[in-house]
Amino acid sequence: MTPSSSPSSTPPGAPRHSARAHSFNAAAAQYAANRPSYPPALFDAVEDLAGRSLSGAEVADVGAGTGISTGLLHSRGADVVAVEPGPGMADEFRRVHPGIPIVRGSGDALPLAAASMDFLTYAQSWHWTEPSRSVPEALRVLRPGGALALWWNTEALDVPWIAAAARRAERFLGLDEKDRKAEKSPSSATPADSLAADPTGTLSFAHRRVRWSRRVPIDTRLANVGSHSQFLVLGEEATGAFFAEERSHLLQAFPEGFVEETYVVELLVAIRS
């Protein structure tokens, strides 16, 4: 999961993977307010592929962040606990979801008892783990027949304005085709295939896609993009001109001030034997 070497167009001082992983803590409120949620159809798909209901199930939502997915799992009737390594994200989680338990930890070293969970879920977070550690940990914590569910909101690049915006962001960040495929682009932040998710081949994943959309103000769109780690680590001074120009692009295309963001949720589910 270590970033590949960056092309010469990458902004100076491009940060390492660990810096990106920690960058969310200072922007937790921005993340919570502007990141997209997930549609009910996603959780229907999780239940279908897992062959069991979330209602009444013991679930650990790992890399829970500010609790976007955790709250939805709770609403489905799951007995859910959040696992989050970042102090800033954990603080925001507690503010937004005071009634849901949260423990500090990561997918590489889960603070959970063996064979204690029916589901382990990773919403936008599996790519921050090291599969050589997180796969054995998942197998340790899941009960026999339990499900590991990984998912990512990815932008629908078949929508012309979204594809154009993604290309502008990639040019600014200095990303090439190799970077986009290796989870470096905010438009394609997912290793949603079995080999990328588990290079050891230990797990057998089923794959499902769920398409959905949301209509949001342009400022929400910009704050959402700005909450990705590639931009957070550069800081407001380095990214200010880019976002000012991006606002102009979007206002030209959408003078009413709203955009329809279309997403494809990439879902992988593996069952513990």
Give a quick summary of the entry:
With 273 residues, this protein is α/β, with parallel strands linked by helices. The protein has helices at 17-22, 28-34, 40-50, 68-75, 87-96, 131-141, 160-173, 177-181, 194-197, 218-226, 229-232, 235-253, and strands spanning 58-62, 79-84, 102-104, 117-123, 142-155, 205-217, 258-271. Helix 5 links the parallel strand 2 (79-84) and strand 3.
Give a verbal description of the structure:
With 273 residues, the chain is an alpha/beta fold. It contains twelve helices and seven strands. The chain has a seven-stranded mixed sheet. α2 packs across α10 (218-226) and α10 runs antiparallel to α12. The protein is globular and about 55 Å long. The model is unreliable at 1-15 and 177-189 (pLDDT under 50).
Number of helices: 12
General form: globular
Distance between the termini: 27 Å
Q: What does the largest sheet look like?
A: 7 strands, mixed
Structural class: alpha/beta
Radius of gyration: 18 Å
- Mean pLDDT equals 86
Oligomer: single chain
Beta-strand percentage?
A: 15-25%
Along the chain, the helix and strand elements come as: HHHEHEHEEHEHHHEHHHE
Write the layout of secondary structure elements.
Blueprint: H1 17-22, H2 28-34, H3 40-50, E1 58-62, H4 68-75, E2 79-84, H5 87-96, E3 102-104, E4 117-123, H6 131-141, E5 142-155, H7 160-173, H8 177-181, H9 194-197, E6 205-217, H10 218-226, H11 229-232, H12 235-253, E7 258-271
Parallel strand pairs: 1-2, 1-4, 2-3, 4-5
Antiparallel strand pairs: 5-7, 6-7
Sum up the structure in keywords.
273 residues, seven-stranded mixed sheet
